[in-house]
Design a protein that fits this description.
- With about 350 residues, this protein is α/β, with parallel strands linked by helices.
- It contains 11 helices and 20 strands.
- A 7-stranded mixed beta sheet has the order 6-5-15-16-17-14-18. A 5-stranded parallel beta sheet has the order 8-2-1-12-20, with helices on both faces.
- α1 runs parallel beside α5, α2 runs parallel beside α9 and α9 runs antiparallel to α10.
- The longest helix has 23 residues.
- It starts with a strand and ends in a 5-residue tail after the last helix.
- The relative contact order is 0.18.
Length: about 350
């Protein structure tokens, strides 16, 4: 069977690894000229780890990730708000919670699949479902025919737009932007085995170790529209590391991301021999840090669906029926906002146990 995957990010390449393990001919097309590494760092949870292990990547994943032993929360005065110990999560949940450098993760996946197999510079123009085949047309003038086409082309998916119509987005009700950067871990006064966050109802900033001697900081401030607004909010937090960390971070490496919430969850993922995966299927807010984790679960579920039947259409139905309700539940969880926000939710490590693991997703 021939499978085409549009999108060479985390979801596309992990899906390729899973499907290739079944002996399928798999081709990955990526619009960027090089391997994508947006996002700087990631917190991946045990559900992601279980999926990655299930794809046969345990040793590679463990080698590039940093196990998090606890989640620590403080107020602006440096007084403790919570301490969630996670050292036993590998035994309890089958995998650890980790911090990871996104480029290291992307490179690990690409090397496991075969970097030379990824076709860079292929941007989707349009797709066609032809009953027992699917065709993808690219902006470079080339076309590709396959038995199954996977749209892993991100939150603003061209393939999703074509097969099910537009999904609209609205500014997030809690925070309009998120700022983030990668710095040297030794320069940040935090526990090197923890996610350490400082929180008030109006804003927060967290740090996680991501390997290679690096740390990833990320945060949001309600009402902040510029980086200057964001930095100014923390200027008086002198009993924390934050003013010093922001001051030492070169402004040119700080990434600003507008936060848009999906206004209406995709009602289906599949049209004929074309289906969706990852952010294309379930765009979600980052407040549960589950976007990438859910993508890896998609990839494993897709592989398992095809492993369990030789009927292509049945496999696609099984994949969507397994994953869409579960992923949409996580989308709704992610819309509740962050700790000390207006919805008064618990810290993320507690929410993960209560809201995600209880649903086995």
């Amino acid at each position: 069977m021939r499978v085409g995957i549009c999108g060479g990010g985390l979801g596309g390449v992990s899906a390729a690894i899973g499907l290739a393990s079944l002996g399928f001919e798999v081709d990955v097309f990526e619009k960027a000229p090089l391997l994508r590494a947006t996002g700087a760092g990631l917190n991946l949870w045990p559900n992601a780890g279980r999926a990655i292990y299930g794809l046969g990547l345990r040793e590679r994943y463990d080698a590039v990730s940093v196990k998090l032993d606890r989640y620590l929360g403080y107020d602006r005065e440096g007084q403790p708000l919570f301490n969630v110990e996670t050292q036993d999560w590998p035994e309890k949940y089958g995998a650890p919670s980790v911090g990871i450098y996104r480029l290291s993760l992307s490179t690990m996946l690409a090397e496991a699949y075969g970097m030379e197999k990824i076709k860079f510079g292929y941007e989707v123009k349009s797709v066609e479902d032809k009953g027992d085949k699917a065709v993808c047309h690219f902006t470079n003038g080339e076309s590709y025919e396959c038995d199954v086409l996977i749209g892993a082309d991100g939150i603003y998916s061209t393939i999703r737009e074509q097969i099910i119509g537009g999904v609209s987005f609205r500014p997030n009700d809690h925070h309009a932007f998120r700022w983030r950067a990668v710095v040297d871990l030794a320069d940040v006064d935090v526990d090197p085995a923890a996610q350490t966050g400082f929180y008030t109802p109006g804003g927060w900033l967290s740090v996680i170790p991501i390997g290679e001697g690096k740390a990833y900081w990320f945060g949001s401030v309600s009402g902040a529209a510029t980086l200057d607004d964001f930095i100014a909010y923390f200027s008086a937090w002198t009993k924390t590391h934050i003013p010093r960390t922001l001051a030492m971070t070169p402004r040119e490496i700080i990434v600003e991301s507008p936060l848009y919430d999906v206004d209406g969850i995709p009602y289906t993922w599949t049209q004929g021999r074309i289906t969706l995966l990852g952010d294309a299927a379930h765009p979600m807010m980052p407040d549960m840090a589950q976007g990438a984790s859910q993508t890896f679960i998609d990839a494993l579920a897709l592989r398992d669906a095809f492993a369990n039947t030789s009927d292509i259409d049945q496999a696609l139905r099984d994949y969507e029926s397994t994953r869409r309700p579960a992923a949409n539940y996580v989308v709704r969880c992610s819309q509740k906002g962050s700790f000390l926000g207006r919805n008064n939710v618990s810290p993320i490590a507690i929410r993960y146990q209560q809201e995600i693991e209880t649903q086995a997703g």
